[in-house]
Structure formats: structure tokens, C-alpha cells
Write a structure and sequence with these properties.
The complex is a heterodimer. By secondary structure, chain A is of the alpha+beta class. Chain A has a domain of 130 residues. Helices cover 36% and strands 24% of the residues of chain A. Chain A is built from four helices and six strands. A four-stranded antiparallel β-sheet of chain A has the order 2-1-6-3. In chain A, strands 4-5 form a two-stranded antiparallel sheet. The longest helix of chain A is centred in the first third of the chain and has 33 residues. By secondary structure, chain B is of the alpha+beta class. Chain B has one domain. In chain B, strands 1, 2, 4, 9, 10, 11, 13, 15 and 16 form a nine-stranded antiparallel β-sheet that branches. In chain B, strands 8-7-6-5-12-3-14 form a seven-stranded antiparallel β-sheet, with no helix packed on it. The longest helix of chain B is centred in the first third of the chain and has 62 residues. The N and C termini of chain B lie far apart (98 Å). Classes of the chains: A alpha+beta, B alpha+beta.
């Protein structure tokens, strides 16, 4: 009977040790996990997307302050269509240079204009690069108000004045949306980066 | 046998520990959801602020009157043009905005909260239409005056006067004299001598300066002698020239005032400080705001 009793007591000691060991392990794990920041799996990409969006917003704000957006949407090619934005070209207007010189240009860009035409909203891409499916994208938009007496330009660097919007409205891609008012139309400039 | 049982208990305890570990990790991932929501809300507020700033800039461009394009003075709006242009702007802008996002923006001209007045303006004060003393505006709460003289021939004496009449001070006049080197006297501008043409004179309720636009010379004068500008009975334009050798323009905006004599060009019913009600709403934030233009000019 004595050995039997001794063995039983020993088993209880082992169980007690096991429980204490478990408590120590659990305690250590819980304490250790307090210091762990389990962010979402795609946090880095989301952060990069946020940075990109901020850069794009700042870039467009800068371009708007300098009047570069208005100049861009009112600069046309020989057919009266919006002038393409060519990265790194020798002949650039202010908007091209701003896009090239800002941090955002380190990414690939797509630049689009939305405008009203014959009751519909048309979208034209003036800088069209194939989008990446791997990198996060960011989009920023600005609206540009155009008035009747805003100047339409053409030429490689937009140096040639064609006349006011009201004067050349039949020869350019923009339609006069308020013929009785000073307002000519509103154009949305959208830049998508990735 | 007993030893094996104790090991079994130990394995069970470790299993429990791993289960707790998994639960803690899951709880931590759940914790990230409110952060994402907060970020979206913050971005929405930023978008609302940015949109309101853009709208204020657009309205400033739309609202300014174009019928006096040659003048480079102060901003003002024509009430009828303003209503029509703002309505067109809202329609155009709203259509485009809804393409990209679930955002609705409305802009409405608030006539009640806007401040009206009168503007007298002429691109050439001696174009043969009138000479002598002519009342431009009357009964103004505040007065902004912009006078530009680019060329004139000296015929002796004061060539161009702007006369302010107040209830306590009587007539006080601003005189522009001499052809080759311009002198300006009155309204505390004593000492502004020998300025090269062209010159610009900008005065807002008795405060302002005279600039020689080519040389950059300017004079601000001592305005302590000018008081009670908040209650102006009349602003008159006077010239004693009967020739066409003066090239000048003036712009006098009287907030709360009205036009004087019929002989001078003047428009009642203008808006000197337009107000607009703007509402911005998207799924995360709704902002109602009022935008007032050109308040800092008075």
C-alpha cells in the first residue's frame, strides 16, 4: 500500500507541475503579445497607397494654384483635341513639368479629363499608361472652372494663342455648357498613379 | 504510467496555451477595424475641407463681374449674373463629381446674407460725356476707391478730384495735379509729390496708398486727419479738363450705398460681398458651410 500511495502522490506532483508550467507559458505568451502590433497583412501597401494619394493631392493643388490645370485643359492639338501629356518630352507645358518634377511621377501615371459633351460626360485619357495589377493605386481629382474669356492655346509648348473659348468653341473638344452665362464649362482632371 | 499521465496533462496545458494565443491574435486583428474606419472618416473630413476650398476659389472666379474688364480695381458681382452663373456651375460640377464618388455638393447664392451696394465706374473720366462735379454714390456704409491715371496734359490747377462729403467733416477732396511729375494732395496724402505716371490710388475707408506702377514708388500718407469714413454722404468726381488728353479710370464701390447723379456711369443693385450656402455630403461626413467673398477688401 505504501508504494502505491507514494506513486499517486508523485503523479499529483507531476500534474501540478504541468499546470504551473502551462500557467507560466500562457502568462509569458499573453505578456509578450501585448507588445505585438498585429496590423493587417496589407498594411504596408495601404500606407504606400495613402502616401501616393497625398502626393497626388498636393501635386494637383500646386498645379491648380499655378493655373497649370486650366492651361492644360485649354491647350489643344491641331485637331482641337486635348493635348497629350508626354512624360519627359522636350516640349512641355506647366502641368507636364509639375507631374515630372514631383515625387508622384516616380510612379506610373494616367491622366484623364472628364467633360460634358452633347449631354453626355466624356472621358479622355491624355496620358495613358497600362495600369499595374500588383502595386496599390491612388486617385486624385480637381475640377477646373472655365470661363468664356479663358484663352485657348496650341503648339508644342502651348505658346500659340488661338483666342478665347467663346471665339473658338466650334473648333475644340469642349462645348459651351452655359451659352447665356460667363461660365463656359467645368472639366475634371483625374490623375491615377500606381 | 503515472508519469505518462502527467505528461499528458502537460500536453493538454500547452494546447490550452496555444488556443489562448490564437484567441489573442484574433482579438488583435479585430482591433484593427476601428482604425480603418477612423482613417476613412478623417479622409472624408479632409475631402470636405478640400472641396470647400476649391468651391471658394471657383466662386471667386465665377462671381467677379466682367463688364468692367478694363478696370483693375475691386471685385464686385452683378446680382443677376451671379445667380445664373452659380446655378450653371452647380449643375456642371455636380454632374462631374458624382462620377468618381458618392459625394453630393450643392452651392446656392444666399442673397439675404450677401451685402449689396452701388458701383460707379468709368474708364475715362474726361471722355467728353461730362465735366465738373458729379455725385457718383451716396449714403454708403463703407467706400472703396480705385483711381488709375495713365496720362494727362497739364492745364493748370487740379486735374482730377475725388470729393468725399461727410456729415461732420464737410467736403474733403483728393487732388491730383501736375502732368510731368504727379502730386497728390488731400485725405492725408500730403507729401506724395513727383510720382511718375502711371499711378494707382487705392483707398478703402480712408486707408490706402498711392503707387507709381512703373517705378514702384508708393506713398501711404497720414490718415489721422481723415475720420468718420463709415458714414459717407457722397463721393463725387470732379474734373476741370475739357480736353481728351486724360487717360484715367476710376472705380468707386459703396457698400450699402446707391447711385447719385444720372450723368455718371453707376450701377445700383450690385453685390459687394456675396454669400453662398454650400452643403457637402458623402457616406461618412456631412458639412454645411457658408462662403463669403471679398470680406477682406472692406
Amino acid at each position: 500500500m505504501q508504494p502505491m500511495k507514494h506513486s499517486r502522490h508523485r503523479g499529483q506532483v507531476f500534474a501540478l507541475e504541468g499546470i504551473i508550467a502551462a500557467l507560466v507559458i500562457v502568462g509569458a505568451l499573453v505578456l509578450g503579445l501585448q507588445a505585438v502590433d498585429t496590423a493587417p497583412w496589407n498594411d504596408e501597401e495601404r500606407e504606400r497607397g495613402g502616401d501616393l494619394r497625398t502626393e497626388l493631392d498636393d501635386t494637383l493643388a500646386l498645379a491648380e494654384d499655378r493655373g497649370a490645370l486650366r492651361e492644360a485643359v485649354t491647350t489643344v492639338d491641331r485637331d482641337g483635341n486635348p493635348r497629350p501629356v508626354v512624360p519627359g518630352a522636350d516640349t512641355q507645358i506647366a502641368f507636364d513639368r509639375i507631374l515630372d518634377n514631383t515625387t508622384a511621377v516616380r510612379s506610373d501615371l494616367r491622366v484623364e479629363y472628364d467633360y460634358h459633351s452633347e449631354g453626355e460626360i466624356e472621358t479622355v485619357a491624355v496620358r495613358d499608361e497600362p495600369p499595374s495589377l500588383e502595386n496599390p493605386t491612388a486617385t486624385a481629382t480637381r475640377q477646373v472652372v472655365l470661363l468664356n474669356n479663358d484663352t485657348v492655346r496650341s503648339g508644342p509648348e502651348g505658346e500659340r494663342e488661338e483666342g478665347t473659348l467663346l471665339e473658338v468653341e466650334d473648333h475644340i473638344y469642349l462645348d459651351n455648357q452655359a451659352p447665356d452665362d460667363e461660365l463656359f464649362t467645368v472639366v475634371t482632371v483625374r490623375v491615377i498613379a500606381w | 504510467m503515472k508519469r505518462d499521465r502527467a505528461q499528458l496533462v502537460l500536453v493538454g496545458a500547452i494546447t490550452v496555451a496555444i488556443a489562448i494565443l490564437g484567441a489573442v491574435i484574433l482579438l488583435n486583428t479585430v482591433h484593427s477595424s476601428p482604425e480603418a474606419t477612423a482613417e476613412t472618416d478623417t479622409r472624408s473630413v479632409a475631402a470636405a475641407e478640400q472641396t470647400l476650398t476649391e468651391i471658394e476659389g471657383d466662386l471667386g472666379r465665377i462671381a467677379v463681374n466682367r463688364s468692367h474688364e478694363g478696370l483693375r480695381g475691386f471685385n464686385f458681382a452683378s446680382k443677376d449674373e451671379l445667380k445664373s452663373n452659380v446655378w450653371a456651375y452647380e449643375n456642371q460640377s455636380l454632374n462631374l463629381t458624382t462620377i468618381d464618388s458618392a459625394t453630393v455638393t450643392t452651392v446656392e447664392f444666399n442673397e439675404i446674407d450677401s451685402t449689396g451696394g452701388a458701383i460707379g465706374a468709368n474708364e475715362s473720366v474726361v471722355d467728353g460725356d461730362y465735366t465738373g462735379n458729379n455725385i457718383v454714390v451716396e449714403d454708403a456704409d463703407d467706400v472703396r476707391i480705385f483711381l488709375e491715371i495713365t496720362r494727362f496734359e497739364d492745364q493748370g490747377g487740379a486735374l482730377q478730384n475725388i470729393v468725399r462729403t461727410g456729415p461732420n467733416t464737410g467736403n474733403q477732396q483728393l487732388d491730383v495735379r501736375d502732368a510731368s511729375d504727379v502730386d497728390v494732395e488731400g485725405w492725408g496724402f500730403a507729401g506724395c509729390d513727383d510720382l511718375a505716371l502711371p499711378i494707382e490710388i487705392e483707398v478703402i475707408n480712408g486707408q490706402g496708398e498711392i503707387r507709381s506702377t512703373d517705378t514702384g514708388d508708393s506713398c501711404t500718407g497720414d490718415f489721422d486727419t481723415v475720420d468718420n469714413w463709415e458714414d459717407v454722404e457722397q463721393i463725387s468726381v470732379f474734373n476741370n479738363m475739357n480736353i481728351d488728353d486724360l487717360e484715367a479710370s476710376y472705380e468707386i464701390i459703396a457698400t450699402g450705398g446707391e447711385c447719385g447723379d444720372d450723368e455718371v456711369q453707376c450701377f445700383d443693385d450690385i453685390i459687394t460681398q456675396p454669400a453662398f450656402d454650400v452643403a457637402f455630403q458623402n457616406p461618412n461626413v456631412a458639412v454645411d458651410s457658408q462662403i463669403r467673398l471679398w470680406e477682406d477688401e472692406s
